Amino acid sequence: MNKLEARKIALKRRIELYNDNLNNLVVKKLIPVIKDYKNIGIYYPIGKEINILSIMDIYPDKNFYLPITNEEISFVKYNKGDALYDGLFNTKEPKGTIVDRSNIDCFIIPCLAISKSKKRLGYGKGYYDRYLSNYNGIKIGVIYKELNNLDFIDDDFDVVLNIIIEG
Ligand code: ADP
Ligand code: MG
Fold this sequence. Notes:
Layout (H helix, E strand, L loop, with lengths): L2 H15 L3 H14 L4 E3 L13 H4 L4 E7 L3 E5 L7 E2 L5 E2 L4 E2 L6 E5 L2 E2 L5 E2 L5 H5 L6 E6 L19 E4 L1
Parallel strand pairs: 1-2, 1-7, 7-10, 10-11
Antiparallel strand pairs: 2-3, 3-6, 4-5, 8-9
The structure holds adenosine-5'-diphosphate and magnesium ion.
């Protein structure tokens, strides 16, 4: 199938798959994966995305960064308790200085689906594709296990994930 069809299926399926317990399961799996990284890009969950924010409590000495969305995405340092403001697409965003991508060791990225060749399907805006093109750090995808290895036709420009964490 094409990406448009895959998005439709995944968005629908995700409503059925949503379960609070998966948040903790995914955070538990993330703990050893990010152990050796200091600067970590995370995300504020929207819709039925798995919520990984409690990873910040496990590692109070690491630096975490949240995306802010304008024409493109960029990342801003987020300390627990910092004020968050409404962004585009129902996200919450900190205010602060944009950090250069090269200062972030790994990104934890919400995925709507993942193809058989480990490529990420997003909501169709290509924000992460552009932001992470030629990025040399680690890209960690978070996904409902039922939406991993989905059979859709991906593109050359889609983000390839190095590590996949299933919920
Ligand atoms: P998503 O990744 O959010 O699922 P798509 O993969 O469908 O969305 O990408 C949306 C659009 O973003 C593409 O049609 C393409 O025009 C644009 N795009 C993606 N990656 C790049 C890139 N590296 N350079 C320029 N445009 C890009
Ligand atoms: Mg893409």
